[in-house]
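Practice problem. Given the sequence and the SMILES for magnesium ion, write out the predicted structure.
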Amino acid sequence: MTPPILDPHSCELISLSPEQTRRVGMRLGALLQVGDVLALSGDLGAGKTTLMQGIASGWGSLDAVSSPTFVLVNVYRRVASGFIIWMPIASAARPKPWSWI
Ligand SMILES: Nc1ncnc2c1ncn2[C@@H]1O[C@H](COP(=O)(O)OP(=O)(O)OP(=O)(O)O)[C@@H](O)[C@H]1O
Ligand SMILES: [Mg+2]
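Answer key:
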């Protein structure tokens, strides 16, 4: 596999703190266009929710972002207009019936 740094379609970022992860998410959220789809994948506690907090904030939402572990769909509204839908997808590789993005 090509190392991410040598692949023109990949970007590898190393975050040393939750705050750094939120800041990366804010940059990403600011780039989002209507209809964009993001897939967040990672083990429990990998930092998905932390990244999503930044994404929603950078996109313009004031809503609080929490892990969707016990929720089927989370919706984050933007003050101007529009919303982000965050929902879990199933993974057959997990021993439990759902894995959460
Ligand atoms: N570099 C980092 N980036 C993001 N979170 C970090 C980092 N270092 C430590 N943490 C901490 O890791 C914990 C787990 O993060 P988070 O809840 O975002 O993970 P998650 O992937 O959403 O977990 P889950 O699958 O249980 O929902 C948080 O308490 C967060 O503050
Ligand atoms: Mg989470």
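Check your answer against the key. Residues 48-49, 67 surround magnesium ion (ligand 2) (CB under 6 Å).
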